[in-house]
Task: structure prediction
Amino acid sequence: MPADDIAVDLNALWQPARAGSIELPHRLAMAPMTRNRSTPEGVPTELNAEYYAQRASLALIVTEGTQPSPDGQGYLLTPGIHSPGQVAGWRKVTDAVHAAGGRIVVQLMHTGRIAHPDNTAHGRQPVAPSAVRPAGVMFTADGPREMPVPRALSTDEVGATVDDFRRAAAYAVEAGADGVEIHGANGYLVHQFLSGNANERTDRYGGSVENRIRFAVDVATAVADEIGADRTGIRLSPGNPYNDIREDDVHELYPALVRALAPLDLAYLHLMHIGDEELLRTLRSLWPGTLLLNRAGADLGARAADVAEGLADVVTVGASALANPDLVDRIRSGAPLNDPDPATFYGGGASGYTDYPALPGAEGAR
Ligand code: PHB
Result:
């Protein structure tokens, strides 16, 4: 295809947009990615600030998953947003991103049963909707380990967990974030409540579709009440079996969830799309606000076409943003992209993190 046609195809990406109170200069945003490079106390560092600031030319940065409470941590060296020290660490990150002209929302990720006590400071048994052990292993400092059977949260504790999200959102804003994204995807706590196989509860948070969506809606309502709906986003991954999730009723559950979330007037809905086009179109039609779409694996032309036809408002990309601090300039100028190095995705220092080269003179160049 001649270069001119490519430019025309991508044009939809370069129009400004809005996600609640956040003005976006264009429509190519950074998807959340776990990088495991915080301190053992879950405090973001200067290096983390540099990494995010390098990527400030993306329309919006959604940070790596960040635990809203000590029990919300499942992985090694992930950041938290539940202590004053963590707020101070995040302040470095948000200041650096804003100084570089960017926008950043902190993703609130409670991993629920996808956790290992050895990865936390407290060493407690993981908590979850029900005492159902997930299949699969968790990486720890001693290598891969089976994840333990989690402890089922009492109904009161579910309410306390909603409050943890609320408090974490307030901390994120105090730390200078432009908003938060509630992680309701990929088999973590919110998704565990949604699913039939991780949620065996018999209280008002389990059983019917109405009950299984309640935790997600309660969290979104609490966070929106605390920091403003216009600074609150939520990420969902309908039908994603990742982390031992089984969903038998996606065509009933997700429309019900999106219908329940729509009146909250959130800043955005962020969908991780794993292939059900009919469901995607249904959810788009039910969501009146801004929709971020993470169509994993699709080429950029296809993603821009999603924006051009109104299926998505903003496109989020993961690995290419990780590997190219100046991704926007590279795409706009037709320059080649750096390849991501999976060996350095999780953990480590600057290598494979802040040392991906930018083009000379590009935004994001050091
Ligand atoms: C991961 O660390 O493997 C991970 C974290 C969050 C996601 C997906 C994967 O949403």
About this structure: DSSP finds twelve helices and 14 strands in the chain. The chain has a mean pLDDT of 96. The domain at 8-312 is CATH 3.20.20.70 (TIM Barrel). Residues 155-174 form the longest helix (20 residues).
